[in-house]
Amino acid sequence: MPELVSSSPVVPFSTALRERSRTAHSGSEHAGFMADLMRGQGTRDDYVALVAQHWFIYASLEAAAEALKGDPVAAPFITEKLTRLPALEADLAYLIGDDWRERITPVETTERYVARIDEIAASRWAGGFVAHHYTRYLGDLSGGQFIGKLMARQFELGSNGIGFYVFDEIADPAAFKDVYRAQLDAAPWDAAEAERVIDEVLLAYRFNTDLFVDLATAKASAAA
Description:
Blueprint: H1 13-20, H2 22-29, H3 32-38, H4 44-68, H5 85-95, H6 100-103, H7 108-123, H8 126-141, H9 143-154, H10 173-186, H11 191-223
Helix pairs in contact: 2-11, 4-5, 4-7, 4-8, 4-11, 7-11, 8-11
């Protein structure tokens, strides 16, 4: 009688990525500064500080998208439907004033975060770009939707100052994310490159967690 050979199904890359980054993602979400904002223990100034750091990050990420839009691996992920920079600039003008550019500065982690994205763009590493793109935008389309509504309610912003969280051109975020994950699964990465991409996603989550630590430290210093 022939021996039966069992084979395990191949785990889609998007599933492996989600599972491997689950702990890092959760740790980032529950970092003290962000947890305080979510529990209603933060201030409007805390929210403004977060929006300011987002501007530096997305300015870099969307410049990277422009640089890599002709890359066959990166291109499927790049769409103007996700572009956040104009919304962030409108939010900052509302929250701070027309002189917002002169009144915001990046914290140390944001500088390192931006430098990493810029390095990836300069080296034209499509996988690294997708790692940061995935970490930011799929988060914005997931928990970010709840965060936007919560900040609007806590700080009585109405529809102002939360444009970053509003994706007018994406009618069905769940369907959009399904397509995005299918694109991740279709990316032509071998096992080694897939590991590099996952490692870069984990680095992105560390940057995000460290950013919240920096913002908490800056807040404590200002109050001293």
